[in-house]
Amino acid sequence: MSRPTLPAPDAAWLDSLSHAALEAAAAERVEAAWRLAREVYPGLPRPALWFDLRGQSAGQAHFGRGGLRLNRVLLAENRRAFFVEIIPHEMAHWLVRHLDEGHRVRPHGHEWRTVMRDLYGLAPRVTHGFDTRRASPAPYRYTCDCREHHLGARRHARIAAGQRYYCRHCRQWLRPVAEASV
Ligand SMILES: [Zn+2]
Ligand SMILES: [Zn+2]
Questions:
Q1: At residue 100, what are phi and psi to the nearest 5 degrees?
Q2: Which of 29, 92, 130, 169 has its CA 20 to 30 Å from the CA of residue 7?
Q3: Does domain 11-128 have CATH number 3.30.2010.10?
């Protein structure tokens, strides 16, 4: 494992930032990650940046909209992790997708992992351990055979008490998901 190529920000400085200053600093971090990615692919377009992602996901590269989305609640609560890992993670998606004209590679496949390791010097993790209770009104994640379901506290408690719910699309029982994706 090589060392991270984006220097880690000072934790005390990060914690001192107002929400507006934090988002401005995150935009600068995205810019720095983008400049590194352009060393691999000089034609890589600059992604737009939004802080409008909600729920359990920390970040998302949104190719239809042409940019990256970050979860503002999780960013404020997990500042260092966003700067060290989440922003490079999403920029790696942005880079791999633009290198892959046929859109054939898997989102967290070999190409993405290689960018994380070799360009950003990071372990290619695909889940985060953030506490998502404040970020999501329906914080309990379940899965079936076709999609993810977000349940509120009441249905989650009913399941814990023995009730079962099934997915109306694939008709499989919902089962809990352990970790939130990035
Ligand atoms: Zn289903
Ligand atoms: Zn990802």
A1: -105, 85
A2: 130
A3: yes
